[in-house]
Please model this.
Amino acid sequence: MVLTGNPVLDALRAHPPEAAANQKRHAILVTVHRQETVDDRAKLAQVLAALERLGREHVVEWPVHPRTRNKVAEMGLVFPSTIQVSDPLGHREFLAKLAVAKFVITDSGGVQEESAILGTPCLTVRNHTERPETIEAGVGLMAHPDASQILEAAREILRDWSRFARPVPHVYGDGRAGEKIAEACVDWLAERAPREMPVRERVAT
Model:
């Protein structure tokens, strides 16, 4: 086994979005699209209810994934009028918003990683997450897809925002994951080559 770190950190260090001063962070950013969330009408309705309530007191921006938009329409639900709904963003545009958001509400694994690196508090709307390091590092919370739990977690983050708003890139390595992966591949190929060479020679003869 070779421990390399996470290439997400490499990518963000190579192309960092422009961060905002803490006092200028202003919006709650949302991205919800996982099948386990949006294919379940009850869960999706709970998420929408929580966002409707948050939108009464805060700017809530949701660049909506096409799958989520389709499911909202298919299930006879509506996006809350209290939030700002827009078309999907490209990855760089999304990262630019993530870097200046007050916090993010998401069910995405990748966004959990990116927010931890950028110092944006993360509220993960899942029953379980394969990225527990963000919770363990104290830069995010997890809430079940239930309106009351989402609102409770959001209020906790806002009450003690500076405690959650800390970049913790070190949990993903030193920013050299790609280099280490390439080196490991070269070493693996070098180890195999001497053993395979006699086989090729026998085939040639």
Remarks:
- The chain has one domain: 11-172.
- Residues 177-204 form the longest helix (28 residues).
